[in-house]
Amino acid sequence: MALSIELVDALKRFLRAQDLTYRDLAARLKLSEAAVKRMFSRRAMSLARLEEICDVLDIGLAELSAEAGRGRAPMATLSEAQEQALVDEPELLLALFLTLNRWKQVDMQAHFNFSDARWTQLLVRLDRLGIIELMPGNRGRPLTARNFRWRADGPMERYFRLNLLHDYFADPFDGEQDVLLLLSGALSPAGIRQLKQRLGEVAREFDALLARDAALSAQERVGVSLVLAQKPWLLQLFHPYRRSQA
């Protein structure tokens, strides 16, 4: 079956939004990477194969068709107003987190005390903010890229610094799934640029792992937060001992 260019382009956008490559898709479909590339380049796949791809992406055919009609690329960042709305309403931020991580309503109800009505209200609010699209069956389709970034010094970053940073570091990092590395030293500008590049690579690997494990059930996944940071910095307690710099 030959598919329209719009449908194939929509599939590609869903793959990019979930950071899935043709190789990843081939592994899920138990096909060769070459076979998958050929399907997309020729736009030739059966309805059964199309449904299999939609299952991998956790979308329905209606959702794919709607996306094909829109032709809209996923958002890489949220607006100032969208971030502020999430900061102002923690329940809304939690609903977005669960939607981005593809939690189904039954999984949400097993772990959180949201009634059906309240969960629907939160999804409607995210839809009206333009962050997700509310689909039939209380399914939320994110309009963001899976690896979207918070705005630099935006509402969410400021909220994290002022309210969540202490919470994040309050408990010791001594569990089997924990790691905390406190490193400091002096580097050349070239060394700093190289380290910044490596941190970016780690962030992209984190995004790829999120995409890989997104199809697993909520019970098979553990919520993980990763903080990567780098800047010229001296502890405040050292400042009294510094000579003034002309």
Task: Provide the fold topology.
Layout: H1 5-17, H2 22-29, H3 33-42, H4 47-57, H5 61-70, H6 80-88, H7 90-100, H8 105-111, H9 116-128, E1 132-135, E2 139-142, H10 155-169, H11 189-213
Antiparallel strand pairs: 1-2
In brief, what are we looking at here?
This protein has 246 residues and is mainly α. It is built from 11 helices and 2 strands, in the order αααααααααββαα.
How many individual β-strands?
Answer: 2
Rg from C-alpha positions?
21 Å
Shape: globular
Strand order of the largest sheet: 1-2
Q: What is the terminal-to-terminal distance? A: 73 Å
Q: In terms of structural class, how would the helical and strand content be classed?
A: mainly alpha
User: Into which percentage range does the β-strand content fall?
Assistant: under 5%
Q: Could you give the order of the helices and strands? A: HHHHHHHHHEEHH
> Quick one: biggest sheet?
2 strands, antiparallel
- The total of helices stands at 11
> Which consecutive residue ranges, at least 5 long each, have pLDDT under 50?
none
Whole-number average pLDDT?
87
- Helicity range of the residues? 40-55%
Give an overview in words.
The chain is mainly alpha-helical and 246 residues long. Helix content is 54%, strand content 3%. The chain has 11 helices and 2 strands; from the N terminus they run αααααααααββαα. The protein has helices spanning 5-17, 22-29, 33-42, 47-57, 61-70, 80-88, 90-100, 105-111, 116-128, 155-169, 189-213, and strands at 132-135, 139-142. The protein has a two-stranded antiparallel sheet with strand order 1-2. α2 crosses α3. It is globular and about 70 Å long.
